[in-house]
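Work Package 3 (structural annotation) set out to generate three-dimensional models for the target panel prioritized at the project kickoff. During this period the team completed the workflow that converts sequence records into discrete structure tokens, so that structures can be stored uniformly alongside our sequence database. As a representative example, we reproduce one entry of 205 residues exactly as it appears in the project archive.
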Amino acid sequence: MGKKEYINKNGEAIPRTTEILGHWQPGLDSLLCWAAGHGSREDFLRNRYRAARSGTQAHTWIQQTIEGSPRLSDFDQRLDLEQRQWAATSYEGFKEWSTTHFPLIRQARCEVQLISDAHGFGGTADLIADLHDGRLILADWKTSKSLSSSYIAQLAAYREAYQEQFQRQIDEAWLVRFCKTEGAYEHRVISRSELDRGWAFFTAC
């Protein structure tokens, strides 16, 4: 599956939020592959790519479940057995998370495409949800080993684009990590002030 292309109102292609954030530390890949003990940069990137594909499968199942039509028997045929297990375990984490957090949600929209003409970037929010208490939240799913501070900057950019595009204020963001090896989850609430700091970081990239 190719990467999504984002087009502004003038018909011009604009960068993704993750592309912009990817430029903030040029030596990051080399540092990470050294820290992860994977040897060469090529080996590290290959392993990261494999994990990302399983994460995409988990995202697909999560979206289908929220929209009411889960098709858990459908796998990306390019995934090997280990990748399929990672995706299935991440999905188990999502099911555990949903028992606590789904009751809070009144209305949900998945895979919301966002464009900021004012700042020249695009992205796709995993979830925008109206809660029963009146709050509007933005959520992003992760299947990484840990939560990075750059994820807050990504959510801050999504908030900025959503508010520009839809003229509604996001009250808070949820950053949710589903562990691909244990079926557990980590749920972090990102406040407006944290998102403000994340936006300052994003605009400095």
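The chain has six helices and seven strands.
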